[in-house]
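Re: 2-acetamido-2-deoxy-beta-D-glucopyranose structure - here you go.
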Amino acid sequence: MAERVQIFQGVRAYGDEVIHGCFSKVGVGRLKGLVSTTTTFIFFFFLLIAALLNRMDIRGTSIGQSIFDSRTSKTYHERIEFPLNCSNSVNLPQTCPENYPSVFQPQESSARTCPDYFRWIHQDLKQWKSSGITEDMIERGKPSADFRLVIVNGKAYVEKYNKPYQTRDVFTIWGILQLLRLYPGKVPDLDLLFYSGDKTMIMKRDYKGLNATSPPPAFHYCGEKAALDIVFPDWTFWGWAEVNIKPWEETLRAIKKGRERIKWEKREPYAYWKGNPYVAKDRVDLLKCNLSDKNDWNVRIYKQDWGKESQQGFKHSKLEDQCTHRYTYAILLLME
Ligand SMILES: *[C@@H]1O[C@H](CO)[C@@H](O)[C@H](O)[C@H]1NC(C)=O
Ligand SMILES: *[C@@H]1O[C@H](CO)[C@@H](O)[C@H](O)[C@H]1NC(C)=O
Ligand SMILES: *[C@@H]1O[C@H](CO)[C@@H](O)[C@H](O)[C@H]1NC(C)=O
């Protein structure tokens, strides 16, 4: 999330997801979200050609998690049919049946492999490999957390410590509830701390030295080399109500439809970027690439006017309406 990159302290931006739609958010942007970094960052300007989406296989699961693999990859993941069967009426709140199954036995073939990005969990948990995670570590981590999530027998319990920005916690917890619904009987009991701010919280430097205590494990939307925060998909997978971003599956569907509106050849032959430049220095630098009297690098940069957009219900911020240019910029934050 752009807000993670807070170079300008004190700027309370509306949390600006890179608004660029069409291709880059599909797969690539999301995947990198899992390994993005806060303060140490290498900015990659990816020029993704419009055809990119066509080369990709996006297999979404109903929890909004999209498993992405390119056609060149040999690994394919089977689509599991979930037992979830809830009403999805436009006018009524969504309801699920009372007699919801408590076990889930999907037909899994033995050849099934985990998506490649699963390997990162070993990296993220390396710190606790020899010590394990103790109750004491969790207790000591409370001051760094916004909430604590405990799952016992498939039921989620939440203890709140701080009020997170907007509804990040609500959507994150909603994601967890969906997970429990989708995999009844499959989610083990757990006890975890969660932090929902922009900047990494558990810094390695604070847990060094002779008398150092062991760091608390805290889940968070971002991590970086200097920190021990354990990365977790950010809330926008399930939605971002304040800026009218729907759950990822719906967003993906809308983008796929949106890109049909103008044929690639008919689109503006430029690279497009829209967002809030004032949350990171590199974004401000990007403004210099815009069309000017002196240069035309075939780049068109647009500022997201959050104030105006919020008054108009974010009608002009829809990702699916931004498939107007042939190329798009994705500013990816990668692990060093
Ligand atoms: C889902 O529920 C509806 C209405 O109760 C029912 O008609 C339908 O057969 C169910 N589908 C599955 C896959 O169970
Ligand atoms: C570690 O703790 C001991 C005993 O409390 C103290 O004497 C020593 O100075 C501490 N060392 C460091 C590096 O803080
Ligand atoms: C970039 O250039 C385009 C085309 O001239 C213009 O419409 C747009 O407002 C410029 N963006 C910024 C951030 O100045």
